[in-house]
Structure formats: C-alpha cells, structure tokens
Amino acid sequence: MGVTKELVKEGNGLPPKPGQLITVHCTGWVAGDPPKKFWSTKDPGQKVFSFNVGKGKVIRGWDEGMLTMKLGEIARLTITSDYGYGPSGFPSWGIPGGATLIFEIEILKIQ
Which of 13, 41, 59, 85 has a Cα at 20 to 30 A from 27? Predict the structure, then answer.
C-alpha cells in the first residue's frame, strides 16, 4: 500500500526538499479497465499546479512521490486509497471511495 513510481522520463538535479514550492503538469485517472481520467492541467482552460511539497497540502501519495522526483522528470505514480482520498473518495471529481489513482506528473519548476 502507498505509492509506486514508474519513471517515464529522467529529470535533472536534486529532488525538492520538504516545504519547497513546486510547479507540475499532471493528469489523474481512477484505476480501472479502462482507467477513467478525472483531471489534467493540460486540458483546455486548466493551468499548471503549484504547491509546497511535503507539507500535507495535497494527498500523501503526491507528497511522498514528488519528493523523489527531479526537475524535468516525468513519472507515473500509482497511489492506493490510503495515500489518496481514502474511503470517502472525492465525489465532485468522480473519485469513488477506496479508489486507486494513477497520476502522470511532470516537475516544471522547483523553488
């Protein structure tokens, strides 16, 4: 249980430290056959997403997974429910309780 990372494209430099502001492109799917996309910063009208990593401002799987990534890296994170939205899910985005999530993340900036 937790988060697993599949490297899609190698990045450069050091991973961010807890508390640093990172900016990412991401696409998220609810795992299934086929996976169901619920959000992407690359969709029309969407913007890149920035947050202070490692501070509990996002789901645990994001914090733990992105602390291992480097600038420019693209990775696919598979996040179990206990590191995602848990038994409640995130109904407004169509994420049911207990869902495993898949995110493709690209680190665009580390500050």
Answer: 13
For residue 51, which amino acid is it? Answer: F
Question: What is the rounded distance in angstroms from the CA atom of residue 68 to the CA atom of residue 16?
Answer: 8
Nearest Cα neighbor of 2 from 68, 72, 78 is 78
Contacts of 36 (CB under 8 A, 6+ apart): 29, 30, 94
pTM here?
0.94
Q: Residue 39 is which amino acid?
A: W
Among 66, 30, 73, which residue's Cα sits nearest to residue 50?
A: 66
Which residues contact residue 31 at a Cβ distance below 8 angstroms, ignoring those fewer than 6 apart? Answer: 78, 99, 100, 101, 102
